[in-house]
Amino acid sequence: MSIDFGRMRREVDTLLAAYGIPPETLTKRYVLERIDEAVERLGQRDPSRAYSFWNEAFALLEDMELNAAAESHLFPGVDRRLRRLKGEGVHLAIATRNCQKALAKVMGGAERYFEVVLTRENSIGYKPEPTALFPILERFSLKGDHIFMIGDHPLDVIAARRASIVPIAVLTGTGKREDLVRAGAAKIFWHVNRAIDFLFPATSS
Q: Which pLDDT does position 204 carry in this prediction?
């Protein structure tokens, strides 16, 4: 799913200004965290206004994500690979900063293969914070070095590193190779299918 994060930030900044918060006064870097920071600031003066801002901000994000999801789909071959992994007993999980509706639209039912699905609505933290991945570690009772995280954005790589999970990057998203390398990717593949096949080779019958 390709989202224009620059536009998203500009639109949130416009909303911040409308609520009397100069965007440049916020200390957080990423959009979700900036929204939370603004809610906290507004809540100190007027909780109802903070709630109104929260609703408008996340409605704006959801609208952009759903528009992007409408033009996105799983890459050919991914569903078949997920089905194979599930059948082989590989534990599968998703952790995303996006909303549940957008994820469901992109996955097209493939989320049924995953035992844990973490969206921003049910996460205890946002990537790149490692807390975003802690429920996965707890659910499977595995050490981080026994888990691979496949992601296409530097935030995925950073979150995995911070949670001591092995970060695998792919170039089928918005992340650039040099940024993924800088973030600390253990290995980079040009396509998500290549990553899956390398990490979990299909056994011949």
A: 55
Burial class, 103, CB count within 10 angstroms (exposed 0-12 / middle 13-18 / buried 19+): buried
Q: How far is CA 13 from CA 36, 97, 145, in A?
A: 13, 19, 39
Q: Return the percentage of the chain with pLDDT > 90, whole number.
A: 88
Contact indicator for 89, 113 with CB cutoff of 8 Å: no
Average pLDDT on 75-103 reads 95
**DSSP β-ladder status, 166-170 and 187-189:** parallel
Angle between helix 47-70 and 5-18 (nearest 10): 160
Answer yes or no: are the C-beta atoms of 96 and 126 closer than 8 Å: no
Yes or no: say if 158 and 127 are a contact pair by the CB < 8 Å rule: yes
How many domains is the chain built from?
Answer: 2
Q: Give the Å distances, CA to CA, from 124 to 95, 107, 119, 185, 188.
A: 11, 22, 10, 24, 28
Q: Which of 3, 40, 37 is nearest to 23 (CA)?
A: 37
* Predicted local distance difference test score (pLDDT) of residue 205: 47
Dig out the tokens for 33 from the structure. Answer: 């965290």
**Does some domain include residue 32?**
yes
173 φψ region: left (φ > 0), alpha (ψ -120 to 50), beta (else): beta
Q: Which domain holds residue 60?
A: 5-70
Q: Does 131 lie in the same domain as 108?
A: yes
Whole-number Cα distances in Å, 1 to 102, 136, 177: 9, 22, 18
